[in-house]
């Protein structure tokens, strides 16, 4: 079976096979992370002062996310042969997202009940006072209903969605624009061609921004360690260790079982995406790797419309790491405050979390807002207990972002296979070599985009 056609306007993933290790992005980002940890540990005041370095790099990436999502979704829809296929891909994506979220919540629920990291803390809810950012996150959560992801779907204006960086709203507008573009027929063909050409420019800008990735990772990690300190890691080390261990179990065992069913090795997939994982680790933001992730997945031969619809939507609806965090954190707070929770009450929490976990990707404090919304809705666990874990949230956000990235990568493969648009032999060939193989049969529907190289 010949590999599926992919529009040549798609940037090629970095050609990691021809460059020495010291010129690859992941090496420099890892070096920057280690240097940042040492700087924040040995000179905390210097590390804290480097916060603008990390936030500026993440802001530069976020600047490009909405145009990349818009161009990818519109270009993908404009390139399909029927609008029915677009609707089919979207429906299958949402069905898989629901299953993935439920699995992640259940894994977290089982882990926190088995290991009980909050047992013996005996914190009194009346002694916990909400302060600073935590108070604002809880207030936002209390004002947020379970239906918020539906009411927030439609932006007040098309420009506002792009200005605020709301991925979910940008996807909504992009789908409408792409469908309308396809519906007008030949009139829209020049616009589709323009979208492909504009994508080349935007991805070239991304290439320039990515040159600063090691600097951004250094600043972000130095600030995290300098501001929160190494001691913060040890004070609640049991909870942090359980969260990281549970997330690793979910990725290797649960997602590994899914990829095994596709006849794909999960470890090879993780290795193929190692640069994206290292980037997320350094910046604590899964958004920083979104454009590169889409490029890498298209490099596996996955159709552009599938990648364009599944990956950005997954950043709002398929947050596996955030789901594990929600179930772990909620029950941990109950254990730490000696709040009894029966199986029925925990299942009730889980049902609410399925809804409150949606649509919050890319929002500052999204994990806390979703947790506060859950606790406020159920009412059985004191929301003030959030203060027990507020100090370590920055360290846990790293793991949330990494797990979310892995979950959305696997989701895209599943949807592509479900659409019968995944050449397993081709995918395994790419994963084995670490780079896409040349395809002579690839159509030249639009001008090719220069390769998105690392360094």
From TrEMBL:
Membrane topology field: Multi-pass membrane protein
Molecular functions per Gene Ontology: fumarate transmembrane transporter activity; malate:proton symporter activity; succinate transmembrane transporter activity
Chief localisation class: membrane
Pfam name, any one: SDF
InterPro entries registered for this protein in UniProt: Na-dicarboxylate_symporter (IPR001991), Na-dicarboxylate_symporter_CS (IPR018107), Na:dicarbo_symporter_sf (IPR036458)
Protein name: C4-dicarboxylate transporter DctA
Keywords, ordered alphabetically: Cell membrane, Membrane, Symport, Transmembrane, Transmembrane helix, Transport
Basic and acidic residues bias (residue ranges): 438-455
Region (Disordered): 435-455
Cross-referenced NCBIfam families: PRK01663.1
GO biological process assignments: L-aspartate transmembrane transport
Listed transmembrane segments: 25-43, 63-83, 95-115, 167-184, 205-230, 242-264, 368-392
Segments forming a coiled coil: none
GO cellular component terms, A-Z: plasma membrane
Record PANTHER family: AEROBIC C4-DICARBOXYLATE TRANSPORT PROTEIN (PTHR42865:SF1), PROTON/GLUTAMATE-ASPARTATE SYMPORTER (PTHR42865)
Localization: Cell membrane
